[in-house]
Write a structure and sequence with these properties.
Shape of chain A: globular
CATH architecture of chain A: Beta Barrel
Number of helices of chain B: 16
Shape of chain B: globular
Radius of gyration of chain A: 23 Å
Strand content of chain B: 15-25%
CATH class of chain A: Mainly Beta
Radius of gyration of chain B: 28 Å
Helix content of chain B: 25-40%
Oligomer: heterodimer
Order of helices and strands of chain A: HEEEHEEEEEEEEEEEEEEEEEEHE
Helix content of chain A: under 10%
Largest interface: A-B, 57 and 54 residues
Structural class of chain B: alpha/beta
CATH superfamily of chain A: Porin, LamB type
Strand order of the largest sheet of chain B: 16-13-12-7-2-1-18-17
Distance between the termini of chain A: 39 Å
Largest sheet of chain A: 18 strands, antiparallel, barrel
CATH topology of chain A: Maltoporin, Chain A
Structural class of chain A: mainly beta
Number of domains of chain A: 1
């Protein structure tokens, strides 16, 4: 079924074609298509609904916007050459469960529980563990490790009508006792914040928070705005305009941000003191303007900006010498165009286009130290990233189709203009699912990803472009309905991945996976979200 | 809000165009040239006599890319300090200002990371012959360096190691599968214990082996499975019950230290799948560590040379069996690759005296005869002319190192060897004794005599052990167009004052004034001057690794800021290089010794060495004074008082054109004689006014 040309990564025209098609689909919906307004979006509304944009827009039931576990990419995935997000496994965007409704009953109070989760079980048909295949920074998620978040809320309304909530989210990676036999787990405390929403529509929050906008579901990635910090923020909604600001910090356990040393105690023994303490300040702001499009379609234009700074410091090397780390900066500008409210009822139809340009620190994931620094050990101004992305879904009574595509150019700050860290990449993924009987759908996920590094393969010593084609037929059982974002889902999936030679060469020379240009996954997947703090 | 259909279409079109344009602007690997397909600099006009080589230990030069600063510990002499190829690129302007014309960079291949706490910052511990050392950059960066150097008018010489690899395996002497650092039972080998010291079998031993074993009882003290001492019959397994045959060797699999079996080449390299690639025990001699250096006088020359050519290099660097045809082919193809991929202009080859014995039979082609011929052919095939191959034979034996410059003839025809060697015999017999310890300057003349075969009956030279010569080949190995340099080894020996394996000239027993005199010699003597980095900054470190200072730190003890050029020493080197460039006679001219001393000590001509360099256009006279007194080019009155004779006609006025000259002039007398006075540790370069 593979085209003979796939082995040579499809270049300019193909990615542009995908993006072009999605752009067209986003802006050329039939005018007659009816759709509900954002204020009364029913359960199952897709990610780009207004409530997706930020915590200020969400109800206490489903508020909050981001999730991202801090676990590393599993060792058995292909090492990503681009540093922007390699160390972080991005969790998917749970679909909205319910939006605030003007006619909704009184604000719920007290304790509540929510969760996002996914579990995968199956085989690579060679007797081994299934693996995600990735040669780009944000690869299709058709096979990805298990992950769960458990959310605990406490909500109440003050006598003056301020809606308060605390959100605590505990996340776990795929260390499953029943798989490893080790009675152990790797938890991470992600959300831990308090939020207050005044009757005047002003929202204030502080704490540790996943903070993000709309995603490309099929890549499990938020291309415009996704931040994980400890800080605070505020937002306000006035008419069609929402504005939010946020500022937070992190101090990664990385020798470029944090070091401790033992020093002699004045009396006896040793004290441990922090000698390098560089907090990375991450601030962002966005403004979203909602507009009505012809045919009852809702739209929005979102402008995003982000600034980061990292103070200077002195890092102690293994030989006890100090290395000066200068102050560093980053800045991002982004734009999103979104539309929804077309397609069938509860179909989750929507379209989003993203553009993001970053320079300096913001070209890297905020949970990963910048790499490829310039001679002064700074990412600013040398590093840059340009991302163009598109995501969408369309559905009706027959079922639905979800699609996503992006292209990304990344250049680090080091002196090399031709090295493997630099280059561009793209991925495109489409997943149609057609109703078969009742809540059962038949679908297929088809994706292609390719990377064009500006450097030589360290194994072949040649310039080569890794690429992966994947096709994954599946049977989906969605007891809550056929909508694109209806969850939970149980899936039976057979994924066939085809890697070209360059993709195989991305593995270490002694990695047995180099021998397999075709990689299977046959197994089951479960995915759910309810009362998830992501919303 | 209403949006018209026209507006929507316009927006759609604009977005689509923007996306396509943005995507097209992002270049990728498909835009990159395969290094093997990149063009090569022809070097048709290069004459290696015109070059001034500048030796760089890359790790110690400049850190241009902190991204590759892995395991960097800049305060520890034996660890990586962060220098890289980008750093060299960044300092090409400095080097151009200095005036050097060729860069010799330390080895580029991937190394074992460390051993016994020392790191492979120097590059001589090969683990992979085809891939670059990631501490320094990747192949594109290396190529960028070579191209940038070419753009600055500099050639680039690659440092090549073919004799051995890094510490990739150990001898499992006791069969426990683990690399023991110490085995009880002393260091005596199987050969000694079982044969030579066994009265019933002692007759099987050669006299040298008997000496080795008898004396070894005193100085062979240990067995380390990484680096056991030499056994002529190969390292043998051993336990408390006795010897158990040839010891197995075990390659380590320690990826964190990159001590893993050598990585096989990529498929396009075409190495047969059924052949080993430096991971076969039979590719190595497996005789253990050369030990005779510390007791050379105890043995016959043959025994010493046998150890040198088959023993492991100290430090557990495993000796390759270059007589094995597969080994020779693998090495040859590997270094052909580096010319093709990186466009190098020459090779400096490490430890050449540890391969082949041309001093015994020049007509035995051996590894070097094959290797050098193949490399020249490869250069020719790539369109490169004047590819320069010089070897390092770390030995003061002039005849021995010279033997590696002689070609030969066998049943397959004529073959060549090295275009040149690093002139160690001059270092040991001339540079150190003459310029640092006031030895008679005649030693340098004797070396010249030996090299060329000139004046074979000179009594002083004969009495002091200088061969009659010629000790170096007097004809080119190949024409320029055939990948050779078109010059005879005698003409292009690489002269140096110090290098990365020797203490700096200024280390102990030497003054800046003495260095100045030596530099005067280096840049006016025939051959190719080679400057060890930092000489122009008065570096004065001792033996390895203290002689590998960080260039980027400058020389604070001497008050010199990093990369400072506004000081006397930098200007001296610069001016001498410029003088050499300005005068064809100093680069390519003939040499005619005019004055040297056969005795040391205070006298009228103490420390004087004088020689004429003549080209078709001019003749210059270099007059050096290595002593700490003002001296003249005349004999003491008690010895007749005769002065130096030159080729200049009577009445010619000679003017000093040396850097920093006082402008002194000297008039040639009858018969071309001239009395030139030279200040202590000074030199004059005289030209006809």
């Amino acid at each position: 079924m593979l085209l003979s040309t796939w082995m040579s990564p499809l270049r300019y025209g193909s990615s542009a074609f995908v993006l072009l098609a999605l752009a067209g689909s986003a802006l050329a919906q039939p005018e007659s298509e009816p759709g509900p307004g954002s204020e009364d979006v029913p359960e199952g509304t897709p990610a780009p609904a207004p409530g997706d944009d930020g915590p200020d827009e969400t109800s206490p039931d489903d508020a909050d916007a981001s999730r991202r576990p801090v676990d590393e990419v599993p060792d058995d995935t292909i090492a990503l050459p681009a540093p922007a997000s390699a160390p972080v496994d991005v969790a998917p965007a749970p679909r909205p469960v319910a939006e605030a409704d003007a006619d909704a009953p009184a604000e719920p109070t007290g304790f509540a529980f929510g969760s996002y989760g996914r579990v995968l079980a199956g085989s690579d048909l060679r007797g081994g563990t299934p693996e995600k295949i990735a040669v780009v920074a944000h690869a299709p998620r058709i096979v990805e490790p298990s992950y769960v978040e458990t959310d605990l809320y406490y909500r109440f309304v003050t006598p003056r009508g301020v809606k308060m909530r605390t959100v605590t989210t505990l996340a776990f990676d795929d260390t499953l006792f029943h798989y490893t036999g080790q009675f152990d787990a790797r938890p991470a405390l992600r959300n831990l914040f308090l939020e207050a929403r005044t009757p005047q529509g002003i929202t204030l929050w502080a704490g540790s928070r996943m903070y993000r906008g709309d995603d490309i579901y099929l890549f499990d990635w938020w291309p415009l705005d996704e931040l994980n910090t400890v800080g605070g923020g505020a937002s306000v909604a006035r008419g069609d305009l929402d504005v939010a600001v946020q500022a937070g910090v992190n101090r990664l356990l990385d020798p470029f941000q944090y070091q401790t040393e033992q020093v002699a105690d004045p009396e006896f023994g040793a004290d441990t003191v922090t000698t390098l303490d560089r907090q990375r300040l991450i601030a962002s702001s966005y403004a979203t303007y909602h507009l009505g499009l012809p045919g009852g379609v809702d739209g929005k234009v979102k402008v995003y900006g982000e600034l980061q700074s990292l103070p200077s410091g002195d890092r102690r090397r293994n030989d006890d010498t100090l290395e000066h780390l200068p102050q560093d900066w980053g800045a991002t500008l982004g734009l999103q165009l979104g539309a929804w409210g077309f397609g069938g009822a509860d179909s989750g139809s929507h379209a989003n286009l993203f553009a993001r340009w970053s320079k300096g620190l913001t070209a890297f994931d905020e949970l990963a130290p910048a790499t490829g620094l310039d001679g002064s050990l700074a990412a600013w101004p040398g590093a840059s990233e340009l991302v163009l992305g598109a995501a969408g879904a369309y559905g009706d009574g027959w079922g639905h189709v979800i699609a996503g595509a992006y292209t990304r150019r990344f250049v680090d700050a080091d002196a090399s203009t031709m090295d493997r860290d630099d280059g561009w990449e793209y991925a495109a993924d489409i997943r149609p699912e057609v109703a078969v009987a009742g809540d059962v759908m038949a679908g297929v996920d088809v994706s292609y990803q390719a990377r064009f590094p500006r450097g030589l393969s360290p194994t072949t010593l040649l310039a080569a472009d890794p690429a992966v084609f994947q096709v994954a037929p599946m049977i989906v059982y969605a007891p809550m309905g056929r909508g694109a974002w209806s969850r939970p889902q149980l899936r039976l999936v057979w994924r066939i991945a085809k890697l070209n030679d360059a993709a195989l060469d991305a593995y270490a020379i002694d990695d047995p996976r180099r021998a397999h240009s075709t990689v299977h996954f046959l197994g089951v997947q479960a995915e759910w979200w309810f009362n998830s703090s992501t919303r | 809000m209403k949006i018209s259909k026209t507006t929507r279409r316009a927006a759609t079109t604009t977005l689509a165009i923007a996306l396509v344009a943005a995507t097209l602007s992002c270049g990728g690997a498909g835009d990159l040239d395969n290094p093997l397909d990149m063009p090569h600099q022809a070097n048709a006009d290069v004459d290696w006599r015109d070059q001034v080589i500048y030796q760089i230990v890359v790790d110690r030069f400049e850190d241009g890319d902190p991204d590759n600063d892995l395991n960097v510990e800049p305060s520890v002499p034996g660890r990586y300090h962060g220098g890289d190829w980008q750093g060299v690129i960044d300092k090409l302007d400095y080097l151009e200002e200095l005036g050097v014309t060729a860069l010799w960079i330390s080895p580029v291949v991937k190394n074992t990371e460390e051993d016994a706490g020392f790191a492979s910052y120097h590059g001589y511990w090969t683990q992979d012959f085809l891939r670059t050392n990631p501490h320094f950059g990747d192949l594109y960066k290396l190529r960028e360096l070579v191209d940038a150097a070419h753009a600055h008018g500099m050639l680039v010489i690659l440092d090549v190691v073919t004799n051995h690899v890094g510490q990739l395996f150990f001898y499992d002497i006791n069969g426990n599968g683990r690399p023991d650092d110490w085995l009880s039972g002393g260091g005596l080998s199987h050969t000694c214990v079982q044969i030579c010291l066994n009265p019933e079998r002692a007759a099987e031993c050669s006299p040298d082996e008997q000496v080795y074993c008898e004396k070894g009882k005193d100085y062979l003290e240990r067995i380390i499975e990484w680096d056991p001492e030499y056994d002529p019959r190969m390292i043998q397994g051993w336990s408390s019950l006795g010897f158990s045959g040839t010891a197995d060797i075990r390659f380590t699999n320690w990826p964190a230290q990159n001590r893993v079996p050598p990585t096989r080449p990529p498929a396009w390299f075409g190495w047969p799948d059924d052949k080993p690639w430096f991971d076969d025990p039979t590719w190595y001699h497996r005789r253990g560590r050369v030990y005779t250096w510390w007791h050379e006088g105890d043995y016959s020359r043959d025994f010493v040379r046998e150890q040198e050519t088959t023993g492991d290099f100290p430090g557990g660097l495993k000796d390759l069996d270059t007589d094995n045809a597969d080994v020779a082919e693998a090495l040859t193809r590997s270094f052909e690759y580096w010319i093709e991929a990186a466009d190098f202009d020459g090779f400096r080859i490490d430890t050449v005296k540890h391969i082949d014995r041309p001093e015994v039979n020049r007509n035995l082609r051996g590894f070097w005869g094959k290797f050098t011929n193949r490399i020249r052919a490869k250069a020719k095939a790539l369109g490169k002319q004047n590819f320069f191959i010089f070897g390092e034979a770390f030995d003061g034996n002039d005849a021995l190192i010279g033997s590696y410059t002689f070609g030969g003839t066998d049943a397959d025809g004529d073959f060549g060897r090295f275009d040149s060697v690093f002139y160690f015999s001059q270092y040991y017999r001339g540079i150190v004794p003459v310029f640092k310890h006031d030895a008679p300057t005649k030693n340098l003349e004797c070396l010249f005599n030996s090299r060329t075969g000139r004046n074979p009956t000179d009594a002083f030279c004969a009495a002091n052990g200088y061969p009659a010569g010629p000790t170096y080949q007097g004809t080119p190995h190949a024409a320029s167009a055939d990948g050779g340099i078109g010059l005879a080894p005698q003409q292009v020996l690489v002269n140096f004052l110090d290098n990365h394996d020797l203490p700096r000239f200024l280390f102990e027993d030497a003054s800046v004034a003495q260095l100045r005199t030596a530099l005067g010699f280096l840049f006016t003597w025939d051959g190719i001057p080679c400057v060890y980095y930092g000489t122009e900054q008065l570096f004065d470190g001792g033996v390895d690794p203290k002689n590998r200072e960080d260039m980027s730190l400058g020389n604070p003890e001497a008050g010199l800021a990093p990369w400072a050029t506004d000081h006397e020493q930098f200007q001296l080197v610069h001016d001498l290089i410029q003088l050499r460039k300005d005068h064809d006679a100093l680069r390519r001219g003939t040499v005619e010794p005019r004055w040297s001393t056969e005795v040391a000590g205070a006298r009228r001509d103490a420390g004087i060495l004088a020689y004429e360099r003549s080209s078709a256009d001019e003749t210059l006279v270099a007059v050096l004074n290595t002593s700490d007194q003002d001296s003249e080019t005349c004999a003491p009155v008690a010895d007749g008082g005769a002065c130096m004779t030159t080729s200049f006609p009577s009445g010619t006025t000679l003017v000093d054109i040396a850097p920093g000259t006082d402008g002194a002039t000297f008039t040639v007398g009858a018969g071309g004689t001239v009395d030139v006075t030279v200040p202590a540790h000074g030199f004059r370069i005289l030209a006809a006014q």
